[in-house]
């Protein structure tokens, strides 16, 4: 029987804590406004810009869902984890989070990513390593399945096109699945009984209705966008009105690049931030 996650709050950190239990429970989803973020990648400046643009906690949004890869590539891994921990949140494990813990063979990473992973591992505090250690790989809450990569392979698989999305619809049961990992905002919407789907490009600052059609939705990346747009990407989900809104916000890329060069990050990782690739 699949594990079901039990939820409760840590009153000191504001985090949503979870525990697996093999007893089947149905967990109701409260009607809330969620700030949906993914792939922060240790970019504190972009993360701060997203939080400022999203508005006031408790007024403009109530809770944060983070779809993984809080760390990796960027210069601020501890700072990003610590900022996330100040917010009421649920966070999933991404491949770079696992790599920083030594759970993945980094020989599968390119040389630039390997260098960033090694630096990140050596820089993270014990407390923040423990935070990453505790992150789940899959979470189901109400109408939503949350993973970093895909429902079929939660940590590693990239949903890059409709074919891969089609193969994943049978691997989750909720109407909606939220993913990250590709760093590209997009919706894959099911259009046939066999799971065939179409790719739908994001429309920004539009509250699009979620009508029950099965969809795999990616909010894009906060800290390292790869869709030729360097602005930080995120989304707002309103489960009372059942709407999804893609958003973008500019941030001081140069300040992040300066910090990356100070710690001798590979120049390719530095330059990609200004181009969004």
Keywords:
277 residues, alpha/beta, Purple Acid Phosphatase, chain A, domain 2, six-stranded mixed beta sheet, 8 helices, globular, disordered N terminus
Report on this model:
With 277 residues, the protein is α/β, with parallel strands linked by helices. It has 8 helices and 14 strands. It has helices at 44-54, 77-85, 95-100, 111-123, 126-133, 162-168, 253-262, 267-275, and strands at 4-9, 16-21, 33-37, 63-66, 89-91, 138-141, 144-147, 176-178, 186-190, 197-200, 208-209, 215-218, 232-238, 243-249. Helix 7 packs antiparallel against helix 8 (267-275). The longest helix is centred in the middle third of the chain and has 13 residues, at 111-123. The chain is globular and about 50 Å long. The model is unreliable at 1-28 (pLDDT under 50).
């Amino acid at each position: 029987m699949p594990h079901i996650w039990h939820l409760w709050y840590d009153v000191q950190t504001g985090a949503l804590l979870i525990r697996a239990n093999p007893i089947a429970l149905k967990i109701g989803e409260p009607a809330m406004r969620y700030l949906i973020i993914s792939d922060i990648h240790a970019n504190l400046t972009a993360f701060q810009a997203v939080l400022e643009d999203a508005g006031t906690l408790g007024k403009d949004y109530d809770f944060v869902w983070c779809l993984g890869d809080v760390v990796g590539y960027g210069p601020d891994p501890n700072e990003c984890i610590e900022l996330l921990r100040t917010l009421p949140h649920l966070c999933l494990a991404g491949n770079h989070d696992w790599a920083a813990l030594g759970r993945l063979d980094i020989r599968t990473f390119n040389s630039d990513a390997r260098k960033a992973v090694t630096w990140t591992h050596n820089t993270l505090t014990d407390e923040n390593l423990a935070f990453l250690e505790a992150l789940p790989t899959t979470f189901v809450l109400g109408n939503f399945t949350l993973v970093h990569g895909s429902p079929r392979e939660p940590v590693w698989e990239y949903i890059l096109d409709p074919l891969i999305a089609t193969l994943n619809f049978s691997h989750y049961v909720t109407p909606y699945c939220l993913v990250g990992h590709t760093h590209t905002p997009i919706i894959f919407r099911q259009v046939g009984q066999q799971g065939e789907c179409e790719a739908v490009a994001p429309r920004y600052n539009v509250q699009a209705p979620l009508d029950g059609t099965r969809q795999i939705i990616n909010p894009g990346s906060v800290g390292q966008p790869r869709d030729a747009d360097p602005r930080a990407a995120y989304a707002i989900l309103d489960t009372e009105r059942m709407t999804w809104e893609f958003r973008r916000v500019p941030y001081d890329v140069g300040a992040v690049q300066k910090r990356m060069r100070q710690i001798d990050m590979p120049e390719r990782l530095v330059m990609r931030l200004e181009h969004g690739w």
